[in-house]
């Protein structure tokens, strides 16, 4: 994915947060030929985000997904900042910070003040938080929409587009054109309900695997092997939870349970204890399985 295609009017993209999801979003935007500005909380975090994108681009070049020249050009289109005020000229800003409502609403309130373009789209990569709550943190809820990518962003083709009840039709059309045109992703439209489409289906499955482990019915290895070898899943549920991040899984489960009050959405005690212990999966090296830590 190294060239733009399709009809869209977005050329300057801002990404708030340079973690795994934010850096992936920044990478696919830079590879699509867009001017990308990523905001992080400090200079060290910003440097880490840049290294993360550079490492991913070099890996893609090694695998012949793009040329070395294309990787270098994409990196040149990426800039880092620690000041959200630098987003004044952005056509689109995608928020990709921690999956906590108070953090996200604070970001949106700030973006509402600093993004000057009257037609700018303010988007969230939230996995589960209703977009209405984020939109009403601004004075322009008609221009707020969910653009939910999946990890790893450069690899997985799906994006959930989530308009709220107040999202304008023009915002939805422009966002869809951007995602499918500039980024070449496949779009599914989701209603503004906690979990949207994918996580409303996925999270109960992951939580069922955690409960099975917690009850002693099977080991983590046997649970995962049962689904990979017996059901042809590419990854077992506990390995997938480790990939997503156990803190993220717990946050999505909590959001789903708060909205629906269904027991199948309630995070099991084992999951909550692991999050409290900092056993978050691949990003910490330990979760339901042990994982080698990468440098970026």
TrEMBL record:
<dbReference type="InterPro" id="IPR013328">
    <property type="entry name" value="6PGD_dom2"/>
</dbReference>
<dbReference type="InterPro" id="IPR036291">
    <property type="entry name" value="NAD(P)-bd_dom_sf"/>
</dbReference>
<dbReference type="GO" id="GO:0070403">
    <property type="term" value="F:NAD+ binding"/>
</dbReference>
<keyword id="KW-0560">Oxidoreductase</keyword>
<feature type="site" description="Important for catalytic activity">
    <location>
        <position position="148"/>
    </location>
</feature>
<dbReference type="InterPro" id="IPR022694">
    <property type="entry name" value="3-OHacyl-CoA_DH"/>
</dbReference>
<dbReference type="InterPro" id="IPR008927">
    <property type="entry name" value="6-PGluconate_DH-like_C_sf"/>
</dbReference>
<feature type="domain" description="3-hydroxyacyl-CoA dehydrogenase C-terminal">
    <location>
        <begin position="195"/>
        <end position="289"/>
    </location>
</feature>
<dbReference type="Pfam" id="PF02737">
    <property type="entry name" value="3HCDH_N"/>
</dbReference>
<dbReference type="GO" id="GO:0008691">
    <property type="term" value="F:3-hydroxybutyryl-CoA dehydrogenase activity"/>
</dbReference>
<comment type="similarity">
    <text>Belongs to the 3-hydroxyacyl-CoA dehydrogenase family.</text>
</comment>
<dbReference type="GO" id="GO:0006635">
    <property type="term" value="P:fatty acid beta-oxidation"/>
</dbReference>
<comment type="pathway">
    <text>Lipid metabolism; butanoate metabolism.</text>
</comment>
<protein>
    <submittedName>
        <fullName>3-hydroxyacyl-CoA dehydrogenase NAD-bindingprotein</fullName>
        <ecNumber>1.1.1.157</ecNumber>
    </submittedName>
</protein>
<dbReference type="Pfam" id="PF00725">
    <property type="entry name" value="3HCDH"/>
</dbReference>
<dbReference type="InterPro" id="IPR006108">
    <property type="entry name" value="3HC_DH_C"/>
</dbReference>
<dbReference type="InterPro" id="IPR006176">
    <property type="entry name" value="3-OHacyl-CoA_DH_NAD-bd"/>
</dbReference>
<feature type="domain" description="3-hydroxyacyl-CoA dehydrogenase NAD binding">
    <location>
        <begin position="13"/>
        <end position="192"/>
    </location>
</feature>
